[in-house]
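User: two proteins, same treatment. go.

Assistant:
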Amino acid sequence: MTPIEQSLMNALVGPITCTGESAEACYHLPEDFEGFNGHFPGHPILPAILQFMLGRLVCSALAGESLRVTSISRAKFSHEIQPEVDIFVQAVRKDISAENIHRFSVTLTVGAAQASTFSLFCVAEQEHA
């Protein structure tokens, strides 16, 4: 796990809850979270890549194994995610292909606002020898 992924995991509020083919979690990122550095000075917002990482962490919990993202589609960002807010992440597994590619639909919500939606295509993370 990378240092930024560990920081994201440390921001988890409570457990990741998995039910059937869906999972949800809540994260709270403090103002000094390193992912806000430089994006943007004076008006920090969570970069898209870190929103994808939050989604992948929840998808991995749902799959019961560490996943690697192979592609992303249908990404829409409709609300900025700023520091010190609760970020609700919901992932729904849509299917698993014959090649063991998991397809997830992911939604990030802040308050009553849908912040982003995207599809993640993932495979099991391979251990490096």
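Protein 2:
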Amino acid sequence: MARSDAGEIGFVAAGTGLALMGRRTCEKCWACSLLTTIEARKLHDAAEGGDGCWNDSVCHSRRSYYRKGRGDRVRRQPQLEEVIVPIPIVSFVVLHTYVEKPRQPHDEIVIHAMCAELWVGEKPIALTQPQHTFGLPPRLVKDYARQLLEALYQQYGNGRRGGFERFAREEQHAISQCPIRPCSYHAEHLRFVETGGDR
């Protein structure tokens, strides 16, 4: 299976950012939390033709929990005055991966697709075209990730390597959110075969 050696590529934060304190991550719930409510019900609500996993009394709060984590529930005291301290404006690149389940560096998990996004300060500037990588061996997955950094540097680096040496972080997305078409996961291009097609 193709895998991405995140540590060798230079990923700094390969997690999803979901610090679920004391609770084991349910991969199915994690993937579901990344979908819209309509998409989630279509996949999991028996009334919508899904697999029957959806439970109205549980799923809404659980999806919110996985998206935000417990930390977001801690609110600042409203009476405190907020002091804004600007941070330096720097360039950095975020790697977006589409995977079947959450992964950690060096996990042998297939990366279905990936792309890279350039930020300057608080503004997204550019995004490489998402490409399927599930058919590539590990070495080529790693090489392709480096090519994404290099392509953004060549176009936006202005001769300064700062921010383009490695990925600032990795954002993991559920494979069901893959934006590429045709896609082996969504298999929309095969529907005509299932229905007999037009003759």
